[in-house]
Amino acid sequence: MTTLTDPPKESFRLSMLIYDSRYRSMTIQVVAMIFFMLVAAWLLNNAIINLNTLGKPISFKFLSNPAGYDINQRLLDYSSRDINLRAALIGLLNTLVVAVLGCITATIIGVIVGVLRLSSNWLVARIMTVYVEMFRNVPVLLWIILAWAILSESLPKIKSFRGENATSSMSLFDSVAITNRGIYIPEPLFSRSLGNIHLLGDSGLRFDISIDLIAIVVVLALSIFGMRKVTARANAVQEATGDRPTTWYIQLGILFVPMIALLVALGFHLGLPELKGFNFKGGTHLRNSLIALWLALSLYTAAFIAEIVRGGIMAISKGQSEAAAALGLRPNRTMSLVILPQALRVIIPPMISNYLNLTKNSSLAIAVGYFDLTGTLGGVTLNQTGRELECVLLLMLVYLVISLLISAVMNWYNKRVELVER
Amino acid sequence: MKKSVIFGALTVAGLAAGAAAAGTLDDVKARGKLNCGVTTGLVGFAAPDANGKWDGFDVGVCRAVAAAVLGDPAAVEFVPTTGKTRFTALASGEIDMLARNTTWTFSRDVDLKFTFVGVNYYDGQGFMVPSELGVSSAKDLDGATVCIQTGTTTELNLADFFRANNISYEPVPIETNAEGQQQYLAGACDVYTTDASGLAATRATFEDPGAHVLLPEIISKEPLGPLVRHGDDNWGDVIRWTLNALITAEELGVSSANVGEMSSGTNNPEVNRLLGTEGNLGEMLGLSADWAKAAIMAGGNYGELFEKNIGENTPIGLARGLNAQWTDGGLIYSPPFR
Questions:
Q1: B165 lies in a domain?
Q2: Residue B246, exposed/middle/buried by CB under 10 A (0-12, 13-18, 19+)?
Q3: Residue B133's CB: how many other CB atoms inside 10 A?
Q4: Are the C-beta atoms of residues A374 and A366 closer than 8 Å to each other?
Q5: Using the 8-state DSSP alphabet, how is residue B191 labeled?
Q6: Contact state of B175 with A366 under an 8 Å Cβ cutoff
């Protein structure tokens, strides 16, 4: 006869937290976590107490006080009477402008340089090597300042455009003025504008959306949709009959006719810059500070991107290009159809961190007098209100959010091009 | 820049309570050196000379304080600060006093918790333009590009002035005076604006100072003076009365040349009190009896400092104007030594 007895039930004893290997690592982690949080709380508490003794308790009220200073490059309306929050918003937009422009140009330059560095042409490959080594081994701040100094010292002064015997003149049929204060280019204007949609009333975050712009985007989207339809139909016809109908003139028509009709309806014309008084008036003013920052950040980051691209391409085995050649693909088709799609999988992850770097490096902007977020919120506002801790915390938060957004978008893209393994 | 602000803020958080509790005067004496915040370089006010020795009007105040407290005008560690870093440097205790043509304003005094101990230069914001532009008034500057030092009161005054006169301008923010000078001379801006004294000092360093004019408008009141942190009144008194001693010395005719002779006793009781041969003013401040004598010996009285560094016989060539003694129709006035 057998008696079924339960295995002796192990009761939990406190000492097991240390001596039982099942719990030990958990215990250590919990203790470390508690310790870490205590230190953080102590630091925070210490800061708050000391700021209170200094008579400067943490307060974000300064954000709703008038900023009092002017900003040269503003994408939204802003005057010195607007509040600090709005000044910070203008700065944030300026940061985003240079970051987006920089990321795009850095990618283009980086990919070209990376590919050319692998070129079998000795001279081209060496020149690209020199470029990469020069740019990535010198701090970006120096490149920014150098670009700025070159622009402001070597380009023609405004006064050389003035008077009877002007030594400089505008380029491209008098539409572009290149000066040491920046480049003035024609701006698009609409004489029969549809107006703006005004959002968020009078608050510091108010902004206008141009209905003209919405109309253009909508028409462009519809055109592209139409073009894809035509392509799909052409494919279907080709499948069925073996003959591909000629579609290029239909495609061009769908792309351009509605857009031109819309632009004519809106009364589109270009506003040309013109020398009036001290400066050129009218047109869009690309300031030296923006150009210098954009140029330096792009060239600097492109050097890193070039290396990533080169590494990505070299990671693809030689057999792939040999196989492509055997199939009769020309070298440029091999690159775009065989090598690059595979290389992208290796390239994207390190690319993310370069985009993040470029965005964060844009905070060096104030060195050339570009009013980015660090220049407004972390510069003048901080200085005039004396709220260092609050401003720096806000700055860190904003940069963190921007960086996380870039990472999120790039990770999503990475998921899409990733090798799908079954 | 951002890093230094973060460190500064953390240091404020970490150390300020400690710094405020202990006496700065004792700290300075124990250290044997005064940490004095000055500009990164503005000829006449504070700039290192060819040998790397700091010299200038603001530097003179630092040296006078060092002489009064430590008996040695050379016992100063000069800490160059920009418009942006100066307040953090002072609040964090990195420097004991700031003598960096800093404007005394309500919010700096009340909100930023600093004590302005007096005024050593009455200034106002002006404009400098190349004379070939043919501008005779700041009101003709509609549409001009203006270089400004960021983080200073001039930035706010400028916005207010152009707004009040309903004219537009394009600001070019710059970090230091040297950069401003480079941008202005390169023609990247039409106008350079800062305190009129700073403009004169900057113009003095140009190759051809005559090709630039200062516009007649002075658009603000800029009382410049040394400042210390709130919460250490004793230390504030030391700086305040050292400055007053220099001013009083000029008023009473005590100069670096005759201070030795006068300190052996004169018929004027105020001179005697000032120089410590009568009464115990020095002891009240926690200093030696001859503190004021040492301060005057360091670089001369107020008038001497002015003439030597920024006066009419220097390249900067500033007239005394508002900065004359009250007895000569100026605003420089010290409370009595009694």
A1: yes
A2: buried
A3: 16
A4: yes
A5: E
A6: yes
**Residue B90: closest CA among chain A residues belongs to which residue?**
A386
Please indicate if any CB of chain A lies within 8 Å of the CB of B165. no
Question: Residue B21: pLDDT above 70?
Answer: no
B5, B155, B159 member nearest A382 (Cβ)? B5
In sequence order, which ranges of chain B are alpha helices (DSSP H)? 2-21, 24-31, 57-70, 86-91, 106-110, 153-164, 177-185, 196-204, 233-252, 259-262, 269-275, 281-285, 291-299, 302-309
| Contact call for B12 and A54, based on CB within 8 A | yes
Report the chain B residue with the minimal C-alpha distance to residue A395.
Answer: B2
Instruction: Tell if the CB–CB gap between B20 and A153 is shorter than 8 Å.
Output: no
* Count of structural domains, chain B: 2
- What's the helix, strand, coil split of chain B in %, to 5? 45, 20, 35
Cβ A353 vs Cβ A315: under 8 Å: no
Which residues are paired to A171 by β-bridges?
A: A176
Asked whether B47 and B316 are in contact (CB, 8 A), the reply is no
Overall average pLDDT of the A199-224 stretch: 88
Closest by Cβ to A69, choosing from B143, B159, B183:
B159
Pair (B212, B231) in one structural domain: no
Range(s) of the domain holding residue B48: 2-122+224-328
Chain B touched by A42 (CB under 8 Å) = no
pLDDT single digits (tens) B37-47: 999 888 899 99
Q: What span, in angstroms and rounded, lies between the C-alpha atoms of B253 and A283?
A: 63
pLDDT exceeding 90 applies to what percent of chain B? Answer: 58
Same domain? B10 vs B104: yes
Inter-chain residue contact A371 with B155, CB threshold 8 Å:
no
Interface predicted TM-score (ipTM) over 0.85: no
Summary mean pLDDT of chain A: 89
